[in-house]
Amino acid sequence: MSPLELLIVVGVLVGAALVRAYGSVDEDEIERWAMAHDVDVDDETRPVVERYLRRSRVCRAWGAIAGLLAPTVIRPLVGQPVHVAGIGAYEATPGEVGLVFIGYLVGALWAELSVAR
């Protein structure tokens, strides 16, 4: 796969993740969350739950994207060959792809810390 093709694939995946993250929160998702957390959802609490779920999705998505792009930014800064999303032409670096998961977890932590208690 050429670097241009890889950039296109990464761009499409990032775009799809952001469309999903910023999309509307459906009623089923709100009801599942409410049942799992033993919360009664009414007209007053529904907007709060919806904002919480959307913020959580957005923060996790941006965290995962940051983890995906981190090797692309960090490697040139330390004088190593450029790898797009942890994938390079000279060597395989599967450990760098794990940064996506770490970024996702940091995004989840960010979402929880940003909620006013």
Provide a short characterization of the protein structure.
Helices cover 70% and strands 0% of the residues. The chain contains 4 helices and no strands.
Can you tell me about this structure?
The model has no long low-confidence stretch (mean pLDDT 84). The chain has one domain. It contains 4 helices and no strands. Helix 1 packs antiparallel against helix 3. The protein is 70% helix and 0% strand.
What is the chain-wise order of helices and strands?
HHHH
Low-confidence stretches: none
Kindly estimate the percentage of residues that lie in beta strands according to DSSP. under 5%
Main beta sheet, described? none
How many helices? The count is 4
Which descriptor suits the 3D outline?
elongated
The chain-level mean pLDDT equals 84
Radius of gyration: 18 Å
Helix amount, in percent? over 70%
Q: Helix- and strand-based class?
A: mainly alpha
Annotation, overall tally of beta strands: 0
Number of domains: 1
Distance between the termini: 48 Å
